[in-house]
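User: Fold this; tokens only.

Assistant: Input:
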Amino acid sequence: MRVLVIGSGGREAAMAWACGRHGHDVTVHRTGVAPVELPDDVIRRHDLVLPGPETALAAGIADRCAALDVPCFGPGALLAKLEASKGYARDLATDLGIPGPAFARFAAGEAEAALDWWHRTGHDVVVKLDGLAGGKGVTVPADAAATRAAIVTAAAAGAFVLEQRMEGAEYSLLALCDGHRAVVFPLAQDHKRIGEGDTGPNTGGMGAYAPAPAAVQAEDLLDTFVQPLLDHLASVGTPYVGVLYAGLMVTADGPQLVEYNCRFGDPEAQTLLPLLRDDLAELALLCTRGHLHQRGEGRLLATQGAACTVVAAAPGYPDAPQLGALVTSTGFADVTTVGPAHDVPDTWLFPAGVNGDGRVTGGRVLAVTGTGPDLAAARDRAYQALGTVSFPGMHLRRDIAWRAPGAAIARYADTGVDIDEGARAVHAMRAAVESTHTPAVLGGVGSFGGVLDLGVLTGMTAPVLVASTDGVGTKVELAARLGRVRGVGADIVNHCIDDVLVQGARPLAFLDYIAAAVLQADMVAEVVTGMAEACAAAGCVLLGGETAEMPGVYAPGAFDIAGTLIGVAERHRLLPRLDVAAGDVLIGLASSGPHTNGYSFLRHLFAWFPMDAEPDGLGRPLGEALLEPHRSYLDPVGRLLDGAHGPSVKALAHITGGGFVENIPRVLPQGTDAVVRLGSWPLPPLFRLVRDLATAMSTHELYRVVNMGIGMVLVVAATEVEAVLADLGEPSWVIGEVVDAVASGHPRTPEVHLVDG
């Protein structure tokens, strides 16, 4: 076929390439997008017209083609209002029962009415210009002052819409429609914000990937967000032909409509079209004839593998892009036309804001798409190939697809760590370990540390030794990678201090173990310095330890640390006490971060996010937040135990590996359970981010893996809660209570029930 593609960006380059790869004769009209700029004879000599930008559709290019009896894959100006007017689209979607947020429409100048609506609803809002804005007409204010400013600015610009802000992952659902039925691409995910971690102003799109992992399927979303619209428009005599793009957000209440677009997305087109096995031009022509049924019964387009697209933008984009710079590349033969990379397989460059001389002419200069059997391979190829492109001030996001790993984690075992397998290992070794015990052993396997009666310590009535051996886990990999290892030295000491503290003991001495493929003296000194600082703060002696070189066991640059801490306690003051019972209250003390547990999960979750970048709302680089040292609770809890209300503390639970779910039951007697009330303490920004990224993980699994902001739990009598909170002298929260277990007819291990409120 002779195909005419209208538009000058990366999207249109991808559309032309997708048609050309199947042998069609493709012409790209780049000089403008208004229909009046196209002479009748130019349109007539083509068999199919594919409009790219929304401006051409809103201006009536499809109507012009219809008058000339030339098939055009796109809606007329009347239906293009679905994108050209946010208010019109919201009204229609609401009438059809399509899920979406509460909203209100306002005319130009109606700032006071909009402010009043915002205040009356009591919700955070999103401010959207009603008309076309090149993907940049949406403002998501950070606070009340920013909301007021955004509303005033929008009112001065023209008609606008306020929508209740939703929370959840956003996805792009693109369907090819023939007026009555549709077929869909796999879900894609766009990256609208200019900055890594989804920070900064909205852009036209800094990258995308597909298929995007989600709890919902594209075919099911088609029934909810596309087919009802097609049925309605066909019933009123205005069948919709073209691409219908539904921007969706998967919220706690299910998928919700963000917006409709009437064309391929940019950069979604550069992502999805390389995956398409079907002939785009033939599919589009079938749609213009209402004949999609001829391609078969499948509703999901035939695609293969995965794709990741990364956009390179001009400095100053999106507000004031600097133009004119020369674009060069050692990996692509030409940066002005679509082409594959020399040395990176299955990789293509799609030019956008670059002219025939290789000079920057637009904000988004070009995009590079990598494809592969899976997303990891596609992403690696895209970044590898884009690394061969350069121009002064080139800006790109290093975190495209960063949300994908978290969306695919349903259980901790998915990241290579199986808590259940660890519990089975403890059970299997119990008999061998307990065969070495004597009557002096008061606590062993399954406790937070070993307890040994040692009545020779002077100055104590009945002293017992409490021992704890532990490690830092895969947090050391992150510390080694970022060159910040002193903190993990403090981690191992403080972890062990907390493990003996929960049994009522104070630390006496600590011994360390450090192993690596090749020992580096500076690294070892840095780690041991961290240990010494933590020991000094706790009044504990660092006696010594062991270092080991183990080439072939550890990867180059990797290391591991562990340690043993010996503490002492009066036997009559050992914890947990025997009188823990239903009605007792759980008090939570803040953690300093993830401490030393859950890092296989966390490293997987943030695998594609730069550690020196700041995700939105975190307030500091992600790597710094993840490497915050494990907190020692010796000071507040030790003072409490020694004070007037110390006997009020019946038990302590250190929230370590296994989180709330595995650790609190360790201090409860049979016949009881614990109820932990989610929302009873403020969730720190890092843990809010973890929760928002791990969209496939259940609440139970999440609170089983990481401490979610609570590192130590106290069990106290209900009558003593106020006194204990006062004695602690720091922010702490009542987070739940001990309850009677539901009768089951046989003994069982106490459980933790996570409830809202």
